[in-house]
Amino acid sequence: MILGPGAVLLRGFALHDAESLLDAVARIARAAPFRFMQTPGGFRMSASMTNAGAAGWVSDRRGYRYDARDPDSGKPWPKLPAAFTTLAGAAATAARFEGFVPDACLINRYEPGARLSLHQDKNERDFSQPIVSLSLGLPAVFLFGGLTRTDTPRRVRLEHGDVAVWGGPSRLAFHGIAPLKDGEHPATGRCRINVTLRRAL
Ligand code: SIN
Ligand code: FE2
Q1: Which ligand sits closest to the CA of 157?
Q2: How far apart (Å, rounded) are the C-alpha atoms in residues 59 and 133?
Q3: Pocket-testing residue among 194, 197, 198, ligand 1, by greatest number of atoms within 8 A of Cβ
């Protein structure tokens, strides 16, 4: 499904690997637990987060940035699992972005009511590299807008196993997640997991 120029939703692309991908998320979360980060404005984000890979996305009173270390433990983030790198490369290729190799993996955990307000992913160095975003567990409504905050976003349902890829002319598209509806998913229970793979460095 086309979301925009250079932006596609690959429905069910990761469905067959979902169980092993969730195992990898659980391993990462044992080494670097999910935590609620603070926005630069001092608010607690409603989705909890962790990271894997050479660069982890962090937010605190000082701003947003990539950091090689988990600020909670002082240790490097867990290694990016090969299964994520492989999936990201395959999804990017399916979306016509060849040779994508992520070095950053942000994992978002949404419980009922959690949301992510409209934003651009723009802390990365090279905007020629796409964003690959995997959905697991409870469904969510993805808000996918244009290049300005005031463009009315499309509302697209993201389900377990779906992978969204955006790059090229849509690389800096505003996007977000509407408040998560309550529910129970056989794979994750009462939450949604999003794994966002990026080339940050
Ligand atoms: C993000 O923009 O970092 C996450 C999007 C999602 O949860 O699908
Ligand atoms: Fe994002």
Answers
A1: 1
A2: 19
A3: 194
User: Cβ of 172: how many Cβ atoms within 10 Å?
Assistant: 16
pLDDT of residue 196: 98
Task: Name the CATH superfamily housing domain 2-198.
Answer: Alpha-ketoglutarate-dependent dioxygenase AlkB-like (2.60.120.590)
Q: What's phi and psi for 86, nearest 5 deg?
A: -65, -45
Q: Which of 1, 172, 198, 176 is nearest to 88 (CA)?
A: 198
In this prediction, residue 47 carries a pLDDT of: 98
pLDDT value, residue 89: 98
Looking at every residue in the chain, the average pLDDT score rounds to 97
**67 C-alpha to center of ligand 2: Å?**
17
Ligand 2 mean position to 116 CA, how many Å?
8
**What is this structure's pTM?**
0.97
Which residue positions in the chain have pLDDT lower than 70?
Answer: none
pLDDT at position 82, please?
97
